[in-house]
Amino acid sequence: MADAALRLKGLVEQLLGAPLPVRVRAWDGTEAGPPDAPVLVVRNRRALRRLLFKPGELGLARAWVAGDLDVDGDLYAALDALADLIWERGEDARTLGQALRDPEVRAAARGLLRLAGPPLPPAPPAEEMRRRRGHLHTRRTDKRAISHHYDVGNDFYELVLGPSMVYSCAYWPAPESAGGTLEEAQRDKLELVSVKLGLKPGMRLLDVGCGWGSMAIHAAREHGVDVVGVTLSQEQAAYARKRVAEEGLTDRIEIRVQDYRDVTDGPFDAISSIGMAEHVGAEKYLQYARHLYALLKPGGRLLNHQIARRPQRDESAYDVDAFIDAYVFPDGELAPVGTTVTQLERAGFEVRDLESIREHYALTLRRWVANLEAGWDRATGLVSPGRARVWRLYMAASALAFEHNRIGVNQVLAVRTPESGTSGLPLRTRTWN
């Protein structure tokens, strides 16, 4: 079809009832749209079929992961331009149904179907994790979800995360200028957690969701504590144990492949949970908080470092992000920070400090994206091209979500305050002891 881009642009704008905010380059090489806008490359008609049979974010994600859609130029600018289509319109079937009552919208949909051509919708890319029926966040389903995300190869994570091997928000000294290296900022984050927990020689720390062992190693090496680290990922555990041995810390650190619910050898003086609680799930969160509370000594501290979403007007209508759930963090759930604080307090904790570090995560993600892009050829060799595209899209989109305050990240310090009421914290909590 001659001039497919112009035809595609016109039909999409008729369907949306708004101008397309990007320039389109179609499979026939033609282009249409604002000359200075980011370029969305539609490599084939299959991309249209994916979008038509799964409108919204998931259809776009499938086309991106499969390589049917691409961006020529700045990915962040393209995602920013498409933000209203991806995040604001969403995938509400009722809204789509209402729109299709309009004769012009129906005509545009029929035109896009003709342009897309047969056959019926293609299968999702192999990297998509199919949701299974049944209860979420059992030990079996959690292990499966964690394996999907983390057991993709330690070499791949080394490329993305860099030498620190920390897969959570770093702590930057100058967010305005993004000064300092990623490794320095991650070291500062681990030290911030250690200081908030008041780690001292001889203490016993539980690191829940210990990843590749970075927090455990930092706490043992820099603060002289004994550490139990738990993860559900076999690959993470093997990597962490190797690092512990290389540091000469095997007498101070034990790395386990273990569900946090199966940890029974408390009490601990302190617990760190860094980027793990997002996997717990709303229905299990109070159980999570109560179990950690039970594992702490009276006066012990919990540092809960967790991503949060903005509250919804109707919380009962909240649904998980379709792309993240299918490709990135299966069964992961985000909660507003107020909900997290409430659940921790219901479990018995006294919440003593909350620090939002939202802007820090945007900076961290942009560094991870830069690492991935710089090592793209090696990354696609270590995993599949589709898997690498998943990581590039989700990290870039997440960076923008943090920058625009669609999501945040918070460090919540909570104490198992003894009956005496003495928390053990200084009167001025920002002068951490």
UniProtKB/TrEMBL annotation:
Compositional bias (Basic residues): 131-140
Gene3D superfamilies: Vaccinia Virus protein VP39 (3.40.50.150)
Biological processes per GO annotation: lipid biosynthetic process; methylation
Keyword Hydrolase: no
Keyword Transferase among record annotations: yes
Disordered, as annotated region: 116-140
GO molecular function, one term: methyltransferase activity
SMART domains noted in UniProt: PKS_MT
Keywords: Lipid metabolism, Methyltransferase, S-adenosyl-L-methionine, Transferase
Domain Polyketide synthase-like methyltransferase intervals: 156-414
Family: Belongs to the CFA/CMAS family.
PANTHER family hit by this protein: CYCLOPROPANE-FATTY-ACYL-PHOSPHOLIPID SYNTHASE (PTHR43667)
Protein name: Cyclopropane-fatty-acyl-phospholipid synthase
